[in-house]
Amino acid sequence: MTQENNDPTVRVVTLSTPLVDQDGKEHTSLTLKEPGGAAYVKIGDPYHTLMIDGKNMGVEQNRERLLSYAAEVTGIHRPLLLTMSFKDIQKVTDAMFVFFG
Which end of the chain is more exposed for a tag (fewer CB within 10 A), N or C? Predict the structure, then answer.
C-alpha cells in the first residue's frame, strides 16, 4: 500500500516483508522522495515512449531505472532493494514512477 500525504514530493510505501538495509536497520516501509536533477542526469528517463505510426501510444516503465531512483532517494543499496518480493518491487517502482508523470 502506498500512503498518500499532503506533500506531493514524498510517498510512503508499506512493505509486505521488512527489508534490512546495509546498516542492519529494518524497514517496514520506504519513504520515497522526488529525485533531484543530479539523479536524473545520472540514471536517465525511467520510461520509454511507445509510438505507433508516429503517434504517442503511451509509456513503458523501466523498473530497473525506477529501482535505481529508489536506491538514490532512500540511501538503501540497490542490491538490497532487489531482495524485496516481486509485489514490493512493483509497489516501490510504481510509487517512484508517479514523480515522473
Answer: C
